[in-house]
């Protein structure tokens, strides 16, 4: 597979010829469509969701069975776009995959992200976070867990989606349990650590303490619940503009109005 082919498989949508980019890693159990409620851009920063193998339109491909394999594959796909300024974002279980990808880019001597935005995840050298990373995978009902989790969005979760997401989620959880972030290792780029006031999966008192031991970290507490990151609620959207470089107020308002129109219409900006 050429670098161009890899990029087409990974990046939704593919990056434009010029301009800054925000690469967004998917939440556990789902793929690039988990960012469907995000705007296409923040000012001049294009939003590119990442689609790993084994999910959604790449379901027929074998998923990665380690963070190292994931990082190697993704680094290959990102390499053609790293001469411009870029950022990386991930929520909860996506954060370890982002960290290992950044480490792989650093190992290759490639340009690093201007910032990692890490939502709902604690300092990586202290272990894993979230109840599902500690349950017995042979006894837990991941279909029910998936339906309950995504049902908090206020709409029923289709049974076929819950079953499919549960299979992907189990693979993610299996891979996650082998993750190790060595003591003394440092994240080679600035990190914005985001916690949510009503997060019952990785609450602020778990997410914040210890990041300063492994990164140049800035803590940001936002009002919201665990999955509000995927909805890109207004408080996050406004913060993203600050973290990526302030955009004109008119630009922010335009994207906010577009998002609200989409919610009313039930549309998907990426279709």
What tags apply to this protein structure?
9 helices; 36% helix; 8-stranded mixed sheet; 8 strands; alpha/beta; disordered C terminus; 271 residues; Rossmann fold; globular
In short:
By secondary structure, the chain is α/β, with parallel strands linked by helices.
Can you describe what's shown?
By secondary structure, this protein is of the alpha/beta class. The chain has a single domain (3-265), classed as 3-Layer(aba) Sandwich (Rossmann fold). Helices cover 36% and strands 15% of the residues. It has helices spanning 3-10, 67-78, 94-107, 142-151, 159-176, 204-207, 228-231, 234-244, 249-265; strands at residues 11-12, 20-24, 41-42, 45-50, 86-91, 116-119, 191-198, 217-225. Strands 1, 2, 3, 4, 5, 6, 7 and 8 form an eight-stranded mixed β-sheet that branches.
> How many helices?
9
Q: Output mean pLDDT.
A: 87
CATH superfamily: Alpha/Beta hydrolase fold, catalytic domain
SS-based structural class? alpha/beta
Strand content: 15-25%
Distance between the termini: 25 Å
For the record, what CATH class applies?
Alpha Beta
Question: What's the CATH architecture name?
Answer: 3-Layer(aba) Sandwich
In CATH, the topology is named Rossmann fold
Identify low-pLDDT runs. Answer: 246-271
Helical percentage: 25-40%
Report the C-alpha radius of gyration, rounded.
17 Å
Total strand segments: 8
The tally of structural domains comes to 1
